[in-house]
Amino acid sequence: MSIQIFTHTNTFKFESGAELQSLEIAYQTFGSINEKQDNVVWVCHALTGNSDVFDWWQGLFGEDDLFNPKDHFIVCANILGSSYGTTCPLSFNPETQQGYYRSFPQFTVKDMVEVQKLLADHLGISEIGLLIGGSLGGQQAVEWAISEPLRIKRLIIIATNAVHSPWGVAFNESQRLAIAADPTYFDDTPDGGKDGLKAARSIALLSYRNYETYANSQMEDGNEKWDNFKASSYQNYQGDKLVKRFNAYSYWYLSKAMDSHNVGRHRSSIVEALREIQAQTLVVGISSDILFPPSEQRFLAEKIPGASYLEIDSYYGHDGFLIETGILTYEIMKFLKNTAAEGALIHLHRTV
Hints:
The protein has helices at 53-56, 109-122, 136-147, 166-180, 194-208, 211-217, 230-245, 248-260, 270-274, 294-303, 320-323, 325-351, and strands at residues 4-8, 12-13, 19-20, 23-30, 40-44, 73-77, 92-93, 98-99, 130-134, 154-158, 280-286, 308-312. The protein has 352 residues and is α/β, with parallel strands linked by helices. The chain has two domains: 4-163 and 262-351, Alpha/Beta hydrolase fold, catalytic domain (Rossmann fold); 169-257, Rna Polymerase Sigma Factor, Chain: A, CATH 1.10.1740. It has an eight-stranded mixed β-sheet with strand order 1-4-6-5-9-10-11-12, with helices on both faces. A two-stranded antiparallel ribbon has the order 2-3. The chain has a two-stranded antiparallel sheet with strand order 7-8. It is found in: Cytoplasm. Pfam families: Abhydrolase_1. Residues 40-322 form the AB hydrolase-1 domain.
């Protein structure tokens, strides 16, 4: 399915009070909505993801996977500020007749969710059968489930939290310091800050994996090497790979948005906010995740009414939510089966 663009022609107001006179939202859909309109699976992607969920979440989403276009109507929108078609810092600013770059309004996870709501309204989707996301995608999903508890029927949030931690903010600030150390970032050009972005990605990788991951995948074969280590090559390769497909300005703003995540903002408290969720919820943690440690997911599961908690053993760290699709498929199938049975029982009790 090719990327589609929805243009929201009314003024979009950010949480900060800043405004955009129009907004473009890039998205993809897979499959068809059924007659009952209860087969919608909406995916919120993570930091440098995109709307092609069949590409970056293979094994969970695909023609022959658990979430397939034969059974589900799958929607994934490129998030606000990202590099893949939705309005972002590189977009055209009608006031200056140039790109926004560093003048783009700072936005939050709540703003990202408001953009997704606009698209859902445009598509005529009043009920989302399953909302799923990991990491920054999970932050969006939990915020959406709080703000529209009646629209979201089932919720799966993986390797995420209710408020971004000081540890996570510190990692993101370190990455922004790397970007700002590249003087070309201040040139406000499409390639500005690319060397800084490469360094930022190298920092990020350390939080996505962990000591054991590198020990297993980047260990040298012998004892004689004194330079040009596998780990060094890996960091450079991954940095170059991101630079080819992303831009430093989007990365800066998206990391700021992640820092902004706090479901208690403008609400009575974090706990009270989580209690607003009515969706049948599965919270998934990853044992080796050092960026979003399992304690954060256990907190979500404890505070969201009726939520189930699952912890996956994986040596891949935070990236396990993208890699461990086999166990995720098995556990999500159980969750869907159990919640379908519970839903039928509730319906039966209500009609008796």
